[in-house]
Inverse folding.
């Protein structure tokens, strides 16, 4: 059997098992080693994407495909996972929970994400999603002595199990009424003349509901703020990036590949989810004073914009979603790395946004980075966060969805308020006690790189990134 | 010399200086900012000299294609040139005005100002639609910072209001831009200026652009962010707000609304005229009852900007050229008035009109310059205000006598509030002992105000220097819009000549 098309997954799978054994035998002392080894594995898996894993096409009897779309998604997932591992440095060491399992769990989760974005069968889709989620449930409750963390894990698990149930039910309906698990086969069932059967439509609704839970789109977002707040911050950074990319890309592939002929059936669902996420994400964030909850609503809001591009249902739209997710991952990881650096003078983490008061006077460089991420998340030019928003609106207008674009863009103004509030606290308010300095040069370098990437210098990346996303989107049409 | 990418240098220089400011001490930041803005002034003057009024429409064109939807394309016509000149002229004055008034977080302040200059110059020079938008919106960030950090007591509310108000206006324009690009297949502004959109689309596109420019302008009833922003901003912030930011609205109408949607512009003339008419009368009356000097000048700005919209939508040469001169003149005059207010605010730290009085006794030099700028705001012949308002009214009169009549009351009301303000501050006796002992202008203040005074007189006595570069471009704009120009209500026509002899016929009987 030729393993070349799934080489990255093989590397991650075997690597994760070996590291787990190392952790089991070497115990707590191996934390540093497993962590850096996991980062190297992820980088290695990203490099392994070059070649067959990005162009072999459907393999293993149509269970997975190795195309450029998947490769693009995987590289984002792997890099975000690597950052999430690095983000944990200096975090768990403080508590007693420090253990080498963290990077291993991240690796399994990343593996699940990789399977999700290359699945072209409902079975592999479900397996990938569950692998990602199960590792995620454990990660959310990683600080098991902390009430909030335990609560987050339990909540995530219960609601996640419910969503998986809904998804499975949808899958069974799709299978029952189309007779196949394969995306192409399902598409053929929809194309088979006449209006699609009620069973198929119900299947579509349930499957999309399951996916909406994973990407935390309204109305399946309820778990997000609680889980984001309760989970340890590096885990939250991970949740906001890699699984989200995996689920959004899975949604894109599912909608275009399997449900392409039924675009009219899912478009209204996606439009509703997009607008509801944008507005609820914007409005609900108003009263939040916990920065992690605030960023949770921000991620709901941002997913809404990505869905605007999906609603277009065109290659341009799919490309804009990919572009959006790429920039979003950089912005959100940068913002969470900044949150990780919010420590009071004893080194304890603080999450209250008013602790940031007057940060510009105590830590000017930190303040500039945070302001760049906030303006960029808000989509204000000349920051680079503006450009992906422009692309999704452009895709929507090109597809004739002008009203959707208008409503969504009004949502950006509503959402701008709370990003502005952070900037106001950082720049306009009187200085609060200064944060303790965090001695993590690698994290500092990552914050710097992320800030430069979403600064106006990011516009230089438009050309190369656009050609990648166009190529990736082209491979699923 | 023209081989140099002058416009890119013009935009990049303040940006680099802003960056440098962040890493140096307060004193050094002041000098860096001053040097950078003066260098930009020099470049602006070079552009003015090198610009050929009889040459191509777009000059100093630079183009650097970036793949994927946005291009670094710059170029200016006469209209952009004079607005760039206004910006680079006001900038060193703003830095000078902040020299002592700003003593907190000086490096960041100078960086914010330089960033602002860079973005504003980019707006006037951009020839790519999305590049324009990036510059246009980007200006919000430094202004938000300037108001929020260095503003007065109510600065937080004012900064939010400024940001969200103008953002809401602009995002609708963005959707219109996306639609235009998808319809016309190009992001080049010159190409879009020649593109004919179908009437159905024009109606909506015009409204979307109007939403943005009306807020920036600002027009009644979406002007309410302006008094707050002006009052709370530091002096130099107000100067740049009045001098440059408010010009973006007028520039937008000339660059986008009129040439790209001529038919829709003609259709919406009544809307624009009604809003402008209300603005002139209403805001002038509001200005009359203000007790805060800065607020009074802010409301007078709204009234003056209404002359601009009247002139622009008159669809004739006098109107458009007048509107341009009003914009330039207002940039100088209201900027100067904010500086004048800043001078006494720095001494007494209150903007209440009632706290002053009799300043002509102890501050004669100050009273002289204040008089000149007040007269220019009123539109006294010989000052820049007269030329612009006269032309704009003339143009308006050719389209609608009623509009011209309403607009003219603005001049009378303007005289009322400006002269009354001047009287209360400079004449009579000092109402507080502190006001009576204030010292006259320092040499730094003279240095700031004298160039503006010279500019005001130059524009008033010899406006040709400023009309020459824009004449050809106004002509091109008129060629573009004249097919849609609304008919005037005067309809002057030569009557049939009656024979003169008939009245003399009885004479013959003698």
């Amino acid at each position: 059997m030729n393993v070349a098309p799934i080489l990255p997954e093989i590397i991650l799978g075997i690597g994760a098992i070996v590291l787990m054994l190392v952790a089991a035998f070497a115990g707590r002392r191996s934390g540093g080693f497993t962590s850096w080894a996991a980062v190297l594995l992820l980088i290695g898996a990203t490099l392994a994407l070059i070649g067959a894993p990005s162009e072999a096409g459907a393999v293993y009897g149509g269970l997975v495909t190795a195309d450029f779309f998947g490769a693009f998604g995987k590289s984002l997932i792997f890099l975000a996972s690597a950052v999430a591992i690095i983000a944990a440095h200096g975090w768990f060491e403080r508590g007693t929970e420090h253990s080498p399992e963290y990077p291993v769990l991240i690796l399994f989760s990343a593996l699940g994400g990789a399977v999700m974005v290359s699945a072209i069968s409902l079975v592999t889709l479900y397996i990938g999603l569950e692998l990602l989620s199960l590792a995620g449930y454990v990660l959310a409750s990683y600080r098991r002595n902390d009430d909030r963390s335990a609560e987050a894990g339990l909540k995530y698990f219960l609601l996640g199990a419910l969503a998986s149930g809904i998804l499975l039910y949808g899958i069974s309906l799709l299978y029952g009424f189309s007779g196949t698990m394969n995306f192409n086969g399902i598409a053929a069932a929809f194309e088979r003349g006449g209006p699609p059967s009620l069973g198929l439509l119900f299947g579509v609704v349930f499957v999309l509901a399951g996916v909406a839970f994973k990407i935390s789109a309204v109305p399946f977002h309820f778990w997000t703020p609680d889980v984001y707040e309760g989970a340890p911050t590096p885990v939250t950074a991970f949740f906001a990036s890699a699984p989200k990319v995996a689920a959004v890309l899975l949604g894109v592939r599912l909608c275009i590949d399997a449900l392409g002929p039924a675009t009219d059936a899912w478009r209204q669902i996606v439009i509703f989810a997009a607008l509801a996420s944008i507005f609820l994400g914007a409005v609900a964030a108003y009263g939040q004073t916990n920065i992690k909850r605030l960023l949770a609503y921000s991620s709901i809001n941002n997913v809404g914009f990505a869905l605007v591009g999906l609603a277009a249902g065109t290659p341009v739209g799919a490309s804009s979603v990919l572009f959006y997710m790429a920039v979003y991952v950089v912005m959100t990881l940068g913002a969470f790395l900044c949150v990780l650096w919010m420590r009071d003078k004893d080194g304890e983490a603080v999450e209250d946004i008013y602790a940031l008061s007057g940060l510009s006077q105590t830590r000017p460089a930190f303040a500039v980075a945070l302001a760049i991420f906030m303006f960029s998340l808000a989509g204000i030019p000349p920051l680079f966060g503006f450009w992906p928003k422009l692309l999704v609106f452009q895709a929507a207008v090109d597809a004739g969805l002008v009203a959707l674009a208008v409503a969504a863009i009004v949502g950006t103004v509503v959402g701008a308020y709370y990003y502005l509030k952070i900037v106001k606290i950082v720049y306009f308010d009187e200085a609060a006690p200064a944060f303790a300095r965090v001695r993590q040069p690698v994290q500092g370098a990552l914050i710097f790189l992320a800030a430069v990437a979403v600064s106006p210098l990011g516009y230089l990346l438009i050309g190369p990134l656009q050609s990648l996303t166009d190529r990736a989107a082209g491979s699923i049409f | 010399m023209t081989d140099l990418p002058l416009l890119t240098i013009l935009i990049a220089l303040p940006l680099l200086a802003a960056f440098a400011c962040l890493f140096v001490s307060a004193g050094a930041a002041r000098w860096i900012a001053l040097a950078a803005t003066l260098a930009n002034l020099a470049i602006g003057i070079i552009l003015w000299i090198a610009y050929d009024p009889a040459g191509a429409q777009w000059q100093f064109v630079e183009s650097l294609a970036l793949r994927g939807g946005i291009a670094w394309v710059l170029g200016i016509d006469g209209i952009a040139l004079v607005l760039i000149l206004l910006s680079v002229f006001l900038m060193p004055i703003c830095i000078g005005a902040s020299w002592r008034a700003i003593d907190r977080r000086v490096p960041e302040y100078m960086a914010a100002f330089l960033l602002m200059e860079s973005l504003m110059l980019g707006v006037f020079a951009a020839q790519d639609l999305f590049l324009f938008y990036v510059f246009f919106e980007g200006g919000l960030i430094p202004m938000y910072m300037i108001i929020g950090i260095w503003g007065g007591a109510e600065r937080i509310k004012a900064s939010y209001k400024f940001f969200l108000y103008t953002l809401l206006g602009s995002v609708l324009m963005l959707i219109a831009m996306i639609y235009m690009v998808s319809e016309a297949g190009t992001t080049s502004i010159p190409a879009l200026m020649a593109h004919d959109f179908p009437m159905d689309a024009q109606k909506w596109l015009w409204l979307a652009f109007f939403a943005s420019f009306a807020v920036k302008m600002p027009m009644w009833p979406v002007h309410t962010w302006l008094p707050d922003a002006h009052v709370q901003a530091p002096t130099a912030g107000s100067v740049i707000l009045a001098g440059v930011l408010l010009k973006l609205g007028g520039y937008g109408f000339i660059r986008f609304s009129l040439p790209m949607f001529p038919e829709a512009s003609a259709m919406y003339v009544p809307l624009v005229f009604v809003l402008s008419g209300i603005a002139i009368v209403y805001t002038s009356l509001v200005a009359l009852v203000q007790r805060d000097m800065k607020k009074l000048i802010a409301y007078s700005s709204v009234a003056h900007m209404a002359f601009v919209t009247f002139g622009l939508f008159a669809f004739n040469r006098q109107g458009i050229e007048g509107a341009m001169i009003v914009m330039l003149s207002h940039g100088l005059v209201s900027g100067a008035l904010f500086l004048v207010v800043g001078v006494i605010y720095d001494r007494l730290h209150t903007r209440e009109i009632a706290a002053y009085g009799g300043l002509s006794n102890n501050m004669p030099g100050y009273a002289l310059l204040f008089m000149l700028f007040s007269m220019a705001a009123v539109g006294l012949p010989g000052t820049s205000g007269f030329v612009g308002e006269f032309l704009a009214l003339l143009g308006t009169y050719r389209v609608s006598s009623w509009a011209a009549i309403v607009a003219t009351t603005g001049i009378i009301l303007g005289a009322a509030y400006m002269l009354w303000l001047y009287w209360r501050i400079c004449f009579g006796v000092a109402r507080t002992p502190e006001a009576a002992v204030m010292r006259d202008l320092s040499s730094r203040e003279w240095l700031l105000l004298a160039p503006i005074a010279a500019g005001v007189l130059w524009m008033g006595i010899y406006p040709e220097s400023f009309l020459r570069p824009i004449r050809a471009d106004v002509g091109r704009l008129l060629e573009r819009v004249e097919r849609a120009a609304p008919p005037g209500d005067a309809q002057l026509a030569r009557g049939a000549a009656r024979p003169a002899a008939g009245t003399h016929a009885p004479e013959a009987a003698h």
In short: Residues 322 and 392 of chain B are 4 Å apart (CA to CA). The radius of gyration of chain B is 24 Å. The interface with chain A takes residues 22, 66-70, 105, 108, 119, 130, 133-135, 137-138, 140-141, 144-145, 148-149, 155-156, 159-160, 163-164, 167-168, 171-172, 174-175, 178-179, 181-182 of chain B (CB under 8 Å).
